[in-house]
Amino acid sequence: MLTLLGLTTVGSIVYPLGRFLAPPGEKDKSKQISLKRSEIPAGEAKDIPFAGMPAMVINLPGRGFVAFSRVCSHLGCLVDYDKVRNRIFCPCHAAVFDLEGNVVTGPPPRPLQKLPLRVEGESIVIG
Amino acid sequence: MWAKIKNWLEIRIGLTELIQTQLTEYRVPKNINLFYTLGFVALVFFVLQVVTGFFLLFYYIPHSETAFRSVQEIMSTVPYGWLVRQMHVVGSTLMFVCVFLHFIAVFFMGGYKKPRELTWVVGTFMFFVTIVFCLSGYLLPWSQMSYWATTIATTMPTAFPYIGDMVGNLMKGSPQVSGLTLNRFFALHVTLLPLILVILIGLHLFLVRRIGISSPPFGRAEEAERPWKKYHHVSHPDGHPFYPDFVLKEVVMLMIFFALMFFIISFLPTLLLPEESNIAADPFKTPAHIKPEWYFLAPYQMLKIIPNKFLGISLQIILSLLFILWPFLDTKEEVNILKRRRLLAFFVLGVFLWVVFTIWGKVS
Amino acid sequence: MRYILPLFILLILPSVAQADWKEQFEKEFLTRPWAGVQVQRNVCIECHSSEMMKPEDRDIPRKWETSWHSQNGISCHNCHGGDPNDAENAMSPQRGYVGTPKPAQIPEFCGKCHAGILKNFLESGHGKALKTSGKGPNCVTCHGSHTVQKASIQIINEPLCTKCHSYGRVKEMRQALLLTENRMNEIEKSLKELKTEGVFTEEEDKSLFSTQAEFRILFHTEDVSLVKKRTDEFAHKLSSIQAKIQKTFEEIKFRKNFSAFLMMIFAGMAIGFGLLAKTPKE
Hints:
The structure holds three protein chains of three kinds. By secondary structure, chain A is α+β, with helices and mostly antiparallel strands. Chain A has one helix at 2-21, and strands spanning 33-36, 45-50, 53-60, 64-69, 80-82, 87-90, 95-97, 103-105, 114-115, 117-120, 123-126. In chain A, the strands form three sheets. Chain A has a four-stranded antiparallel beta sheet, with no helix packed on it. Chain A has a four-stranded antiparallel beta sheet with strand order 5-6-7-8, with no helix packed on it. In chain A, strands 1-11-10 form a three-stranded antiparallel beta sheet, with no helix packed on it. In chain A, strand 3 and strand 4 form a beta hairpin. Chain B is mostly helical. Chain B has a single domain (37-296), classed as Cytochrome Bc1 Complex, Chain C, CATH 1.20.810. Chain B has a two-stranded antiparallel sheet with strand order 1-2. In chain C, helix 13 runs antiparallel to helix 14, helix 13 packs parallel to helix 15 (224-278) and helix 14 packs antiparallel against helix 15 (224-278). In chain C, 66% of the residues lie in helices and 0% in strands.
């Protein structure tokens, strides 16, 4: 009786421990998004969904492509790329981010989340 | 098969004799009570803290910008991370409860008297190390609760003239609680304090075994231990065998405490993790009702009601010194507290005041 | 034991000498953040709630304290500029003080922060009316100024809107907004519940906020057909948030059950070992 209880205890500790320690698995290929370079003209930005989160890719003239999450680090509104003033702007409380994602002015406490991006020939791969 | 292994060990380390002297023929007093198990339970809880803490280290990132998120990830993303973290949090409170009950029990049963003064003193240092453990560990999740409770705790020493500010700065590593504070608290919590506590535990256990377990002073006539003039190991030839009798008692108490821990985790998961613990630390915004963790409420409340900060801190220091040096202050030979009305009253008053201050600290 | 009392007395003397008792205690103790009471200096509020002010102006700080701005740490200088820490230069233009806006300039005043809404408002009938004839609603008309509260559908109501025109079109707009508004309120309630259960809901909070903001901005355009068109889109977003919340509630239940299971095991072991301990020895 006690052995059964003991075994159950050991089992209900070993199983969660195993799951706790186990590595999270291969990088989910399906989470990657790829698009063609030609889809984003110079100086423009394109909205893309990335892993269920609104994101955008900007084609910065002279600096290449860069990808950010569109979720403002303040309260979550979606930011937009302002190509006239060369900045990223949040319409909710007038937050301004620079093109590195750093906060220039406004209430956000943290920089905008940058997404990993690589250019492979004619394609851009995010994730 | 089993016999073969036993024999292999026997001819190398004298296994049989070891089992006999340390377990089956090692005897505990006949009138031993359940309170004697608390030391063991506290030890197991410490080991639990080390184990859960170790596993938390796999996913926790000790930097002011990532600490909070890493803890939230442990709670929501890592499989069963919530269980490990809750065990660490609830375990720490229960360890403190255990240690506290153990201290009260030893005091009540006069276990600090000659020749056990050193055991008591080592025990008080273990208690203080436990307190520093709690203090340093509390900051690590870097939540609003952590940040501001630590601000309070590290501002208290500044009440001292001259050295106060220096002590405060030394603790924080910067004028205000910051990432530097997090780093040094982390270093303390994870390396130095465990090392110190393990050494103190070793010393404490050595003293307990070397001198011999005391008997509860109630009921049975105390053996002729007094007056203590020369070293001799206190043995209880007509007592219960340590193994299996007392070990079973210890295990039962341990299981009860574990069941209690899982009860709190299941039905009161927010008892020790209120809303502020789920909000990232914001140095510019003090939450409305910040309080230290429950075990610090009594000294905190005491400090609040004494209008003079310096007096308040001095009082705390005096009380701590009283606590450490108690065996040297109470040198009466009578061990049974029930026969010493004044001491009993002092004891009851002390515990009562502590409880009252804790509750007062919570509601005010 | 006998040294305690003298030691005590010895320490009282320098302590008494050190402190000027109550005043110093109050000043130092109560202004420390850890004393539980935060007393921050704000010269704007100090002057504007004092006897120097006209009675009707004296009420402003109190009104502000009831506002949603105040609860989110937005105070006088965030809108009016100036320096809240320096009494002499508090209202100096060099410190950014802009004073009180004229009614037609109010949208730009609030739009310093609420930029998205400003854009929509200026393109709407209300905005155009305000700018061309000077007669029209501005932000304060519906939201109040110092008493501004969290946005809700209650702001759109008959007594308010019929001050200037009939309620017919307003009703249509309100109808179009209502369903989504209700769902958003429901989600907000669920998120609050999750918070009390100790869950960290930042992602869902942000998702909801962004949806709410986008949705409410729409009202300022006064375009009912636009609202109706985009309601489905919003419903979709809200559904996915609700699905996540549902999953979280289920996860909480699982955790409770699992740890209760562990509790039962250990309780069983306690009983088992307890019984074993009580068995009479051979």
